[in-house]
Predict the 3D structure of the following.
Amino acid sequence: MRAALGLAVLLLAALPAGAQQREATPPPTSEAKPVGYLPADAVDFRLVLPPPPAQGSLRDRQDMAEVLSLQTAADDTRWQAANQDDAFVYPRFDAAFGSPIDRIHAPRLVALLNRAIRDVAAPTFAAKGVFLRVRPYQRVQLSRVCGENPAPAPEANPKERSSYPSGHAAYGWTTALILARVAPDRSQQVLARAADYALSREVCGVHFPSDVEAGRIMAVAVVDRLMRDPAFLADLTAAKAEHGSNA
């Protein structure tokens, strides 16, 4: 597990700066990266995630069929939404939450979310480094892929293999599970938004359904562990009070 976590740190460090923004406005470059609440090995992905479907198996073929179906069915509005989901996290939940999730309106909430995202990133990227699943667009020619223009050609032997689990889905579900606790009256909306946010990964052609489900499982496991951490609970209480004062 320690070797996997070391690889996860390298994978996180190697992510391009513009790959995805948590906040609508990036934090100052001088700002220190957020530190999670939990020890690095607090959630062992091996205890919560099954391996991804073997390539060519029935489940794997079903995975690919769903991605192709969603790519065909998505109209321009859904495609643009998928691209926005690809680019951002918190602002994509503003409407469902009922108020902006930014440093002006909710600084305590943003700080809380930033730390929790680090907690879910560690085991998620450790799992990616072990399971090494190839992404949909690396296996078949898709008509469009989020963040790529034109859609890339399939690769015979991809070097980058990080489809399982979906990091975006893990981040979206972690965000939603926390927002639902900050504003229980908006829980139905934020959880529905999380499901749609995760589905965007399939519309984008960058993840399979089982990748997305694995991201949700990672988020549930991490948030469950966070709900037993005193520092997180104290910050959650502060975020609730902040939200209440803004209502």
Observations:
- Confidence is low (pLDDT under 50) at residues 2-18.
- DSSP finds ten helices and no strands in the chain.
